[in-house]
Every structure is written in structure tokens, then in C-alpha cells.
From TrEMBL:
Domain spans labelled YoaR-like putative peptidoglycan binding: 81-166
Source domain of life: Bacteria
Transmembrane residue ranges: 7-31
Pfam families noted in UniProt: PG_binding_4, VanW
Assigned keywords, A-Z: Membrane, Transmembrane, Transmembrane helix
Protein name, per record: Vanomycin resistance protein VanB
Region (Disordered): 282-312
Amino acid sequence: MAERNLPVVVGAVVGAVVGLVLLVLGGLWLAQGGEILPNTTVAGVELGGLAPEEATGELQDVVEQRRRDTVTLAFEDRQFVVAPADVGFEVDVAATVAAAASRGRDGLPGDALERVRSLWTEREYPLRERHDEQALAARVDEIATEVDREEFPGDVVADPDTLEVSVEPAQGRASVRRDELTTVLTEAMLEAGPDELDLPVDTTPQPVADEDLEQVATQVEGAVAAPLILEAAGEQLTLEPGTIARLIEVTPQPDGDDGAPSTLAIEVTPQRLEEVLGDTVDRFDTPPQDASFVTDRAPPSRFDPQGSTSFSPVEVSVDVAGGQPGSRFDPEAAADQLEQLFADNVREAELEVEVVDPDLDTARAEELRPTHVIGTFTTYYTGGQPRVQNIQRLADVVDDTLVLPDEQFSINELSGERRCERGYVEAGTIVQGELVDTCGGGVSQFGTTTFNAAFFAGVQLDQWQAHSFYISRYPMGREATLSYPTLDVRFTNDTDGAIVVRTSYTSGAITVTLYGQPVAETVRAQHGSPTDRVAPETQTRTVDDLACGQEREIQGQNEGFTVEVVRTVERIGGGSDQQTIRTVYSPQNRIVERGAC
């Protein structure tokens, strides 16, 4: 009987227990209603048993404290304070309370268990926050901009006015880890109380040690402590301390395979040297002196034949005046030297300058030294005429001209335009068949004299032009006129030695002499007789300054003709060259002026 009733008893007990549990749960559900479950905290504040509105009020102190809490970030000797308002940080109270109130209200059967568990189990909910992403990023950028830096080796500067030397310390590279800083700030804002944290920064060591900077500073102080005296080429230049301060720079010196700087040193650049010193260094520039040849201005004897003739070189003694090197200020060499002088605190030194060799040194001059008068010629004039002044002026310009092998001699290039302001006067010049006065006129006689000297020297004749009509004071067919810039006398030195052109004059004659190393045993001039004669004409023109029927002759007459001159150069060692020069002279027409009737 008892065994038959056992299931009934067990069922009744279980039913009673279940009913009791349901009764208890129902009581809890009714008791807790819309309140936050017990043992529920936010930021250490117990919110259990509070309605959401009450929980919101309970959290206000925490929220206000969070608004006042700052984050201080430290790097080296600097601090950066970030307030919640700087990044738009706020506690989302409604979301925080809603999260706490959701405990045990996620749905059965879990809700029933969580409600029972809340009677003895505490559960912490975090503050829900919101912030302005753009404001946070801007504050991170602001901090990074102040902190980020490239590696700096330091600097030492001397003030040119006060001579005070200042040192700027070296610094390693610094770079803020921006993403990490963003995370650090976000997390710190949620923590209670002000935070003091290290700023997340990547750094490199200081490239130059402080003791190295101090050593260079001592050198700079010594450099500007007193003047520096430089001497060269017989000249002296004093660099005052203020000038030295403007000259020197302190620059990093690379060390090791990576080329990274490890120390500093005084540097003087050629550019800074030229900028600061300007033309004060021109005193160290001295032109080189070419070797020269000591020759007599006048030849041993005159040579002046008008017709067929010959000339042979005349041996003479010519000394060589040795050349002298010059000097030139060399900015690069001077900059290197000054760096060392400043580093060693030297106050006086011989400046290293560039040696400038002469174009013609003594040894080369000895090889080219003239041994003979290879050509000379003399023509004559009546003293006191204006054209004589021009001839003598041009002779002085050309005298002692050196023509090296393969160089070309040119009267026009030597003289330039023969203007009155250069010492020339007005004298007769043939212009369109008539003699008229022009500045520098009459110098064609010098052209003829020079041409004949070159003719009998046997050198290469490059350019000459005979007068348009024949003038009896010149060798027929062996003469030349001048007119700048077109009509010139040019010859090339095709000998192995130097040619020295000397000019000399008296009150009645002009002589041009060429000293050199001869290429000809003899040079001959064979003149032919005039042919193809052309009679002159008479040109008449009316003028107002003569009475009716009166006349005056402005220019006399001469006939025109053609003549040939054969030049024969008999070479030293054998062989000869011939050149035929054919000249056509126009007639010199008679010009008469008559008074108007």
C-alpha cells in the first residue's frame, strides 16, 4: 500500500517546490518592478533598487568629476594638459543608466536566474562616453606638431656686433605615435581622477655630445677674440673680429659609414668669403709679367728702295727679359686655410694664393728669341703736317707688338678706331677719289711702311689694299692704305720664332722693323713697268665764295695705270716661293672750283 502511494507523495513534493520557486520569483518580479537590480554599480556608485531617473541623479557627481578630470602628458621637460572639453568628451548618462537597468531584463529563462543571482552577486557597468573625433584628432595633431622634430646637431653662432657666442644644444629626432596617443587619451578620460602619463614618442639619441659643442664654442670665441692679419704678394689684409664672425659657420661633420653627424667644426665657404670680403681681396691679385725681348727701336740701317730690290736678314743680338708669375686670390684655398687658422687660433699668416704663370715664360721665350732683323722699311714725309702727327701716334700704339708663331698681326685690331679723342687729328684721306680731311687721316703711309717690312720678311701676307690712285712717295704697286674697320694690313707669323714689331720715327721719316727668326735667305721685289694707262679727267663744280670767272684747283691730276710686282722668297735650306701682286690704279682726276656767274 505504502509503495503504491510513493509516486504520489514525490509528485506532491516536487509540485510544492516548484510552486514555491514560482511564488518567490513572482515576488521578486513584483518587488523589483522597474528598479535596477541590486548589486549593480557604475563607476563605483551603487544603483541597485533605484529607478532609472533616480540612478541618473545618483551619477551626476561622477559625471561632473569626469568633466573636471584632466590628462597630463609629459615629454622631456614639457607637459601637455588635455581637458575633457578640449576633445568634446561627455558621459552619456542615459546610455549608461539604460545599460545598468537592462540587467535581468534580457528575456526568460536567463532573466529569472540573473534576478536571483543579483541578490548576492555584484555587477559593474562602465560609463558610456562620447567624444568629438575631429576635436580629438586636432588636439593630437597639435601636441605632435609641438613635439615632432628632426635631428639637430646643434649650432654655435658669434654675433658680428657684440661678438657674443651662443650655443644651441643638439637634439635627437622625436616623433609622436599619434594612433597610440589617441587611444591613451580616450581611455584616460574614462578613468576617475586626473591622470599623469608619459607622452608616447619615438626618439633617437642626441647626435652631437654637449662637450663637443662646448669645444667648438671655445674655438669660435678664440676666432673672434682678436684680428687676423693676412699677407701675400706684398700686401696685407686685416680681418677684424666682426668680419671673422660673419665669415665663420659651424657645420656638422659626418662620421662613420652612415654619414650621420657626430661633431661640429668651424667652416668657411668660398661663397661666404667672396660675399663678406668683396673686392678687398683684389689687392692679392697681381698680373703675371710675360717674358719679353729687348730690341732696338730703330734698325741697324735703313732700307727704303722704291723699285726692284732685295733684302736679306741682318743678324742682331736680342736679350730675353725674364717673365714673372702673378698671383690670384683663390676663394677655395683661402676658405680651407682660414678654417684651420681659426681652429688653431692663429692671428697672423701668409695667405695661400694661386700662382698665375705668364703666357710666355722665360724658357719659352728663349726658344722663340729673335736672332735677326728679318724685315724693315722706311718711308718719308715732310715734317709739321697734321698727318705726320697721326702717323707717329699710330707708330707709338703699334711699337713693340709681339706676334707669336701662328698668330696674326693686324693694325686695326691694335689701334681700334682712330678717333680724335684718342690723340689723332684731322688730315687728308681719299674719299671717292678726292682727298678730304678726316680724323686720323694720313696714316696710310704707316700701313705702306708696315706692309713693306712684312713683304721683305718673307712672312705670309694676309690683307692689304693699294690706294685708289698712285701717290708718288710710295713704292709703285708695293703699298697699302688703311681705313678702320675695313681696310687693314695683316700678316701671319708663319716662322718658328717670335716676331717683334718695332716702330721708330724722326721729323722726316717713319720706319717699321720686324725682329724674328728668318725663314728666307733673300726676298726679292721685281717691279714691272706701268701698263694700261688711263688719262685723268677734269671735274668742275660751281661755288659761291668765288667771283664770276674766278677758279681754283682743289686737286691735281695723274694718270691711272696697271703695274705688277713679283715677290720671290728664297727659303733657307733651298726652294723659293713666288707671288705676283697686280695693282690697278685709277686716274687722279683734276678738280676745279669756279665762281658762279
